[in-house]
Every structure is written in structure tokens, then in C-alpha cells.
Write a structure and sequence with these properties.
Elements lengths: L7 H12 L3 H14 L4 E7 L5 E6 L6 H7 L25 H6 L3 E7 L5 E7 L2 E8 L4 E7 L6 H4 L5 H18 L4 E6 L2 E6 L4 H9 L3 H4 E8 L2 E8 L4 E2 L5 E5 L2 E3 L2 H10 L9 E2 L1 E6 L5 E2 L10 E2 L2 H18 L7 H10 L6 H4 L9 H9 L12 H10 L20 E6 L3 E6 L2 E6 H18 L5 E11 L2 H9 L1 H6 L3 E4 L4 E8 L7 H15 L2 H6 L1 H9 L12 H13 L13 E5 H7 L4
The structure holds adenosine-5'-triphosphate (ATP) and magnesium ion.
């Protein structure tokens, strides 16, 4: 066996495998370099999702020809202060990005410092093939053509130009969020797809994620010891079907960390259903010694010295902010209500257990109040409002009291309370039905049946509706259009960032199409493409069913109430809605007797 030193072009290639996984990772490195060079504006051009071309132009400090040569050598960096990685404040510090990218592409580096002339160096897969004067404004332009064209092993793992573009857009978004003081433009296949001017942080986050955040966002700004947390999160009522709009920045660096997902879930746990997710861009500042940024070749992961403290700061801080915003939960509302009826020496929960259901009334109703679809009740006023609702007269009177004792398992409707609950009398007790939860389950089962039997009936819109969405979201919906048609939703592409809806599923009535499409796109993204969509039709049906027609708060006629009860009796799984909450509870005669001390 002979041990030999690898030639430098091979070393670069090996390193490239770590740093440059796909066009988006090359793009990220180049934009980071531009920001490190003090750019005030960064312009990105892409072709075919970056597979054909990635070009980044900045108006930063620029390099002279000698610096350019050095920049293309491995482990050459201007950034590492006194050899202490912990103290690094710039994005880059490894001196690997440029030579790595240059070793797997055709690479053109143009640069011009202020007050000097421009210079160009061209490389072909790591080999220098030309250099000479170049005309450009002060700053730097890096052009990467045909990334991985000669690295078939890597090329094979790349996804479609659309998927690569989606990843590139995400990379630019992250960096643009981390530097709201810098302007960014992004052009894909000759079309301008993103353009942001210097702005405040909340305005920048809203511009990049959702303009609605300007109204429905909650600014975060708090300090605990030497940890600080800033940024924007969405109010609970403004949520998404996937956890994909959650960004974490550690000391200004965009990172991907599971910790954030869990912390957000915990912070919102009592104000948001489990399958809904907040939007968040959180900026964490902590002393450099508290975090190691050198654990991942692309620096997208970090290691915290004390992850629990970080998690605690996020959960505690957000809970506090949500509480101050008036969207904190009011679990007391239900306890209060039951104790009005319950003798004081008994625990309210023990009386209301639904057989086999292990959950009590106070818990299920509590959750119903916090459902995102009920914004009016989700605030601090929940206690007050629920009490007024419950003391209002019954909304409907169903049957005269001498009607024959019902034989249906879920009984006969006797009335509606708070425009939300149906009260029914069964042979052996009193039934309370959460009409919203129940209807959601019925719609879901109808959709599943319909999709299994060759199609859900569709309702053609008189005027097709145009829905504007992100380009990647439109791509996902377009790819899934055939499957969605099976659910009665007819969509087609209408320009790069819009979909045209021609028909919607009849069982849904008139849904909010923008929200429905956005949720479906999220669902498809999470499932990982149309193939998976076919296998997980039940999940998609559940997303549809969330956009059902009978909301809490709607007054139902007696006939409607009884029809709902009868359909529940014959529908599988109708005992719980698709969020796992019970749809009905029973107060058996024995329970009622106990309430009045008769037993
Ligand atoms: N757009 C640019 N403007 C000015 N100088 C640049 C630019 N891009 C790169 N450089 C110079 O080239 C050097 C090498 O860049 P490269 O990205 O390879 O390494 P790095 O940024 O130092 O570290 P890392 O590998 O962690 O990104 C940088 O240290 C910087 O001095
Ligand atoms: Mg760099």
C-alpha cells in the first residue's frame, strides 16, 4: 500500500461534496461572501433553478487581482480573527467556499475594488483557464455555470429545476431576513421573482414571508441574562398547515435547528391546534462562547452549550408575548362553568367522562375555544364571552317536552346552545354535540368515500377565481392537479405565481379558496410530492375537511340538527374530529342525578 498526498483539485472536489450539495448551497455561500464584503445591494440571477447558472453580484469591497487569486485557494480567508473560531462574526471563516464551487463548475470571478480597475479570473473545474481585465462597477460578480455538469454522481441526486429553484429562493429569503439593511433582488430565467429594499426587520420579514404579517404579526424583543431574543411571530389566528415558515437566526446566522420547531410548538400549545403552525422569524443573540458554529460544513447547524436555556427563553418569551397580546388561553372559562353546576366537594371533570373516551368535558370544550377558527373567543375575553353565550336563551327549540323517548343512540335534538353545541336527549341521558367538530368529521368521511368512488362531486364556479401564491406552492399544486381533481378541486396554472380555480369540492360549500390552496400546498410539500399525495389521500382529505361549511357560531334548524345526529350515527369514526377532539359527550342519567345530589 502506498500512501500519497492527494492533488489539490481532488481535495477541492472532496470538500465541494461537503460544502456544495446543490445550487442553493453554492448560492448561499456566494451571497454570504457578498454580505461579508459589506455589500449594500446583492443581485442574484439563476437559470434552471441554478443548475445552468448561479450568478451573484455585489457592490461590496471588491478584491484586487492578487486577492482574487488567493481567494480561490483552499483555506485562504480574510475573515478568521486571530485564529479563534469562537470569535467569528462574519458568515464565512473556513476559506473553502470559492475553491470548492470552482472545482465542480465553470467559474468566473470578476472583481473591482473602489478606485481601481476590474479583473477577471476564469476556471474550468478547478483549472485556471484565463484571466484579464474586466469591466464592472466596484464590487464583485461570481458566475457559476453548469454546476456538477462533470460530476455525474452528484448531478444524479439533484432534483428538478423547480425543486432546486425552491431551495434557492429559501436560501435567499433566509439571508435577506438576516440582513434587513441590505437590498436584494432575485431573477429566475429572466424574470424578477424577488425584490426587497432596505427596511426594518418586521417589514422585511413580512415582505419575504407574508404581507399579512404586518397586521397579524407580534414583534418579539426580550432579554434574559446575556441571551436576547428578537423577531416576529404570527398571532395564533394567523397560522399555516405546515411548519415551513419558521426561521431561526443565531447571532445573525440563519440556522436549521429542530429546537426551534419544538420550542414553537410548546409556546403555542394552548392556543393552536396540533396540526396548525405559526409563522416565525426569531433572532437569537448569545455570547459567542455559548454557541459553536463550526459543526456543519455549510454552517447551517449550530451547537448550543446550554440548549435548555435557549429553549426556555423561546418558550417563555413567546408565551409572555402572546399573553400580553391578548391571545393567551383562558382555561378557567370552562372550569368556572362546570363549577357553577357542580357541588363544590366534587371534581368537575369526573362527572362528564364520555365512556371509552378518557377525556372530560372541560378539556374538550376548552380546546374548542382555542381553535384557530374561533378568533373572537381565543382572546382574553374568552371567559366573559363564553359566559354571555351560555346564559343566552337556547337558539332553537326542537321538540315539545312530551315527545316520545327517542331510540336513536345520539337522541333527538332538543336545542342549540351558544350557536355551537347541540343538546339532544337520548334514552339514557343528555348528549352534547360540538357541531363544528362533528361536521368536520362528516365532511372528511364524505370526501374519503367520494375520492374512493371515482370523484367527489364538484361545484363549478361561475367565475373562475385567481389565487396568488408562492411560485413553489403553485408548482406543487400544478403537479398535483390530477389528484386534486379527484377531490372535486379543479385548478390550473395561471402565470408563475397564480393558480386559477375552476371548480371546488361540493361538500365544502364556498370555502376560502386562497387558504384552502395554501394549506394544500403545505400539505403536499410536507408529504414530499404528488406520488406521496396518492398514498396519503386521507391526510389531504383532512386538509379539505378543515374547510368545511358548518362553523361553530351558526344557528342550525331543528331538521339540520337531527340530520347531523343521524349522519353521525352511521359515519365511521364520528366520535372524534380529525384533530382528535371528541365530537360529542354524554351526561348519563346517573351523572345528572349525581349533580343534584340524588345519588
Ligand atoms: N464577494 C466578495 N467580495 C469581496 N471579497 C470576497 C468575496 N467573495 C470572497 N471574497 C474573499 O475571498 C475569500 C475566500 O472566500 P471563501 O468563501 O472561499 O471563504 P470564506 O468566506 O473566507 O470562508 P467560508 O468557506 O467559510 O465561506 C474571503 O475570505 C474573502 O476575503
Ligand atoms: Mg465564504
Amino acid at each position: 500500500m502506498s500512501i500519497r498526498r492527494l492533488p489539490s483539485h481532488l481535495v477541492d472536489r472532496i470538500a465541494a461534496g461537503e460544502v456544495v450539495e446543490r445550487p442553493a448551497s453554492a448560492l448561499k455561500e456566494l451571497v454570504e461572501n457578498a454580505l461579508d464584503a459589506g455589500a449594500a445591494h446583492v443581485a442574484v440571477r439563476l437559470s434552471a433553478g441554478g443548475l445552468d447558472l448561479v450568478e451573484v453580484t455585489d457592490d461590496g469591497a471588491g478584491m484586487n487581482p492578487a486577492e482574487m487569486s488567493l481567494a480561490l485557494e483552499r483555506h485562504a480567508t480574510s475573515k478568521l480573527p486571530d485564529e479563534a473560531i469562537e470569535a467569528v462574526a462574519s458568515f464565512g471563516f473556513r476559506g473553502e467556499a470559492l475553491p470548492s464551487i470552482a472545482s465542480v463548475s465553470r467559474f468566473t470571478l470578476d472583481s473591482r475594488p473602489r478606485g481601481a480597475d476590474g479583473w477577471r479570473i476564469t476556471l474550468d473545474h478547478g483549472v485556471r483557464v484565463g484571466e484579464g481585465p474586466a469591466a464592472l462597477p466596484p464590487g464583485t460578480r461570481v458566475r457559476v455555470d453548469e454546476l456538477f455538469a462533470k460530476v455525474p454522481a452528484r448531478r444524479k441526486f439533484l432534483r428538478s429545476p423547480r425543486a432546486e429553484y425552491a431551495a434557492c429562493l429559501d436560501a435567499v429569503r433566509r439571508l435577506a431576513m438576516s440582513r434587513p439593511d441590505v437590498g436584494f433582488t432575485l431573477e429566475h430565467d429572466g424574470r424578477r421573482t424577488l425584490s426587497v429594499q432596505p427596511a426594518t426587520l418586521p417589514a422585511r420579514v413580512a415582505a419575504l414571508l407574508d404581507p399579512e404579517l404586518e397586521r397579524a404579526g407580534l414583534p418579539i424583543d426580550l432579554q434574559r441574562g446575556d441571551l436576547a431574543l428578537g423577531g416576529v411571530v404570527s398571532l395564533p389566528t394567523f397560522n399555516r398547515g405546515a411548519a415551513d415558515h419558521q426561521y431561526l437566526f443565531v447571532n445573525g446566522r440563519p440556522v436549521k435547528d429542530r429546537l426551534l420547531v419544538g420550542a414553537l410548538r410548546a409556546a403555542y400549545s394552548d392556543v393552536l391546534a396540533r396540526d396548525r403552525h405559526p409563522i416565525a422569524a426569531l433572532f437569537l443573540r448569545l455570547p459567542l462562547g455559548e454557541v459553536d458554529v463550526n459543526v456543519h460544513p455549510a454552517k447551517t447547524e449550530v451547537r448550543f452549550r446550554d440548549p435548555q436555556a435557549v429553549r426556555g427563553l423561546i418558550v417563555g418569551g413567546l408565551r409572555q408575548a402572546l399573553g400580553e397580546a391578548g391571545h393567551r388561553s383562558q382555561p378557567a372559562a370552562q372550569v368556572q362553568w362546570t363549577s357553577d353546576l357542580t357541588p363544590h366537594d366534587r371534581h368537575p371533570g369526573e362527572l362528564h367522562r364520555h365512556p371509552g373516551e378518557g377525556r372530560d368535558l372541560s378539556e374538550s370544550s376548552h380546546q374548542a375555544y382555542l381553535r384557530p377558527e374561533l378568533p373572537a373567543l381565543a382572546g382574553t375575553t374568552a371567559l366573559h364571552e363564553s359566559r354571555t353565550l351560555f346564559t343566552a336563551a337556547p337558539a332553537a327549540r326542537a321538540e315539545p317536552a312530551h315527545a316520545p323517548v327517542p331510540t336513536h343512540p345520539l337522541g333527538v335534538a332538543r336545542g342549540q346552545v351558544a350557536a355551537t353545541y347541540i343538546v339532544a336527549e337520548a334514552a339514557d341521558g343528555l348528549i352534547l354535540v360540538d357541531q363544528h367538530a362533528a361536521h368536520e368529521r362528516l365532511v372528511l368521511e364524505r370526501l374519503k368515500r367520494g375520492a374512493g368512488n371515482g370523484g367527489v362531486p364538484r361545484q363549478t364556479l361561475l367565475l373562475p377565481e385567481v389565487v396568488e401564491l408562492d411560485e413553489p406552492d403553485c408548482d406543487r399544486l400544478e403537479e398535483a392537479a390530477t389528484d386534486l381533481a379527484g377531490f372535486g378541486l379543479e385548478v390550473e396554472r395561471f402565470g408563475p405565481t397564480a393558480m386559477l380555480v375552476r371548480a371546488s369540492p361540493a361538500p365544502l360549500g364556498t370555502p376560502d379558496l386562497k387558504r384552502l390552496l395554501a394549506d394544500l400546498a403545505d400539505e403536499i410539500a410536507e408529504l414530499g410530492g404528488p406520488q406521496a399525495l396518492k398514498e396519503r389521500l386521507d391526510l389531504v382529505a383532512a386538509t379539505f375537511a378543515c374547510h368545511h361549511s358548518v362553523r361553530a357560531g351558526r344557528i342550525l334548524s331543528v331538521a339540520e340538527m337531527n340530520a347531523l345526529l343521524r349522519e353521525m350515527e352511521v359515519t365511521p369514526l364520528s366520535g372524534q374530529c380529525n384533530h382528535g377532539r371528541p365530537t360529542w359527550v354524554k351526561l348519563a342519567h346517573g351523572d345528572i342525578e349525581k349533580l343534584f345530589g340524588r345519588k
